[in-house]
Amino acid sequence: MSVARVTEIISGSPKSFQDAIEEGIDRANKTLKNVEGAWVKDQSVILDKGKIKEYRVVLKVTFVLSD
Fold first, then answer.
1. In degrees rounded to 5, what are phi and psi of residue 21?
2. Could you tell me the sign of the dihedral formed by the alpha carbons of 25, 28, 57, 13, in that order?
3. What single string gives the DSSP state of each residue in 7-62?
4. Which PANTHER family does the entry mention (predicted)?
5. Spatial separation of the C-alpha atoms in residues 39 and 23, rounded to whole Å
6. pLDDT of 2
């Protein structure tokens, strides 16, 4: 029997939402073992003088806890 946990990660990128997602997943894999999946809970942009400064995503990351 497996037990999983879900944690929330906020990640940003000046390039795109896709890049912010990839950065968040890469970072999660560095600290969490057995990452099984993720979904985007929310997306937003940070503006500076009316221009997009950062694309930001809130990710829910699922990882399996080991025995």
1. -65, -50
2. negative
3. EEEEEEESS-HHHHHHHHHHHHHHH-SSEEEEEEEEEEEEEETTEEEEEEEEEEEE
4. CALCIUM DODECIN (PTHR39324)
5. 14
6. 83
Q: Is the pLDDT of residue 37 over 70?
A: yes
Handedness of CA 62, 65, 66, 67 (dihedral sign): negative
The terminus-to-terminus CA distance of the chain in angstroms comes to 10
Query: Residue 67's pLDDT is what?
Result: 60
For the chain, give the percent of residues with pLDDT over 90. 94
For residue 10 the two structure tokens come to 């906020």
* Domain 3-65: top CATH class: alpha beta
Q: Which residue has the tokens 């997306």?
A: 43
Distance, in Å, from the CA atom of 20 to the CA atom of 53, rounded to the nearest integer, reads: 13
